[in-house]
Amino acid sequence: MSAGPNNASGSPAAVLRHVLSHLVTPLLMCVGMGFAYLGAFHAPAPHDMRVDVVGSGPSAQVLAQTLQDKGDGALSVRTVADRATAEDHLSTQASYGAYLPGKSPELLVASASSDTSATVVEKVFTRVAAEQGEPLMVTDVAPSADGDATGQGIFFLLVVLSIGSYASVAVIGGAGAALALWIRAALAAGASLVVSVIGMALAGPVFGLVDHGLGGLWAMAWLYSAGILLIGVGLHTFLKRWTTLSLMVLFVMLNFTSSGGIFRPEVQPGFFGALHSFWNGAGFVEGVRSHVYFGGHALGGHLLVLTLWFVAGLALMGMAGRAEAQRRRAVVAPVPPIAEGARPEERPEARQIGAGTDEDAEEEMEEAVVV
Length: 371
Description:
Elements (H helix, E strand, L loop, with lengths): L11 H11 L1 H18 L7 E6 L3 H14 L3 E6 L2 H9 L6 E3 L5 E4 L5 H17 L5 E4 L12 H23 L5 H26 L7 H26 L3 H16 L11 H7 L3 H14 L5 H33 L16 H7 L2 H14 L1
Parallel strand pairs: 1-2, 1-3, 4-5
Antiparallel strand pairs: 3-4
Helix pairs in contact: 2-9, 6-7, 6-8, 6-9, 6-14, 7-8, 8-9, 8-11, 8-12, 9-10, 11-12
């Protein structure tokens, strides 16, 4: 039978209160995304960005010191003896540009490290060459793959993997909340495998974002995705409908902005630069760059970051398992005697076990819709 107009649960005032209470999550997301994205990206400016001036004579020393002084902290300029040393610094991401002065000035960059950083360096040394009355030749010693013209394809791959991972959490944690934890863990492992294979296929044969090293890319994609899924499923035991907002904070607001996929920490505010050193998105982006473009330089550190986030997910799953076991023991604990003639819905165990079921189910559906 449909609820009548006088039913309090269906009255306009009750519906309005319900809607307003559930507007909190999207409004918080709006505020958080605004502060995160605008705070990280609205005014990129270099600070202590390492560049080299090639040469050992007085003129090279004077040029380096002049750039250092004029930069007012934007650049960290040093001189190197020869072109080979400058290229080695670029190949290990120890610098982001190397200027060779002379009658035909040349700038060396490695756009695979960061296209935006290479652009910043190019602007600086284009002005230097113009002051000398010479055109600047730019040589890219580590370009990104042909299918990644902007050098930001790995970042957008990160976005794909992240969305696939935390959206899967909403389904496994919400719709599958009644399943045993080990089954949810197995579903998380399976979902992360599928997400990582999709990411590898998109990055390689579909769009050509990378042209080699797909095996290593897949392994890092799986480790990244599995970490998010385990953390999310574990958190869901404690946070319920607030899990999606928490994952948005962890793996969108703080993650995308600190990954270095668009702007490296050298052109971002210090907060996001600090996150870059240990956040999982940065571990994935820099790990793939290292593996694909820079011969595995510093790859171990990036893999360590991804592994630690995965271990954190395992730890959360363990905590969730203990918490759920305690709840089950509480449900089967002795209950007060049943009053003679009490209706089934008045039985204590019915109130204990069934309380909030409809509300919880509704919240899980909202969680999935928000994702």
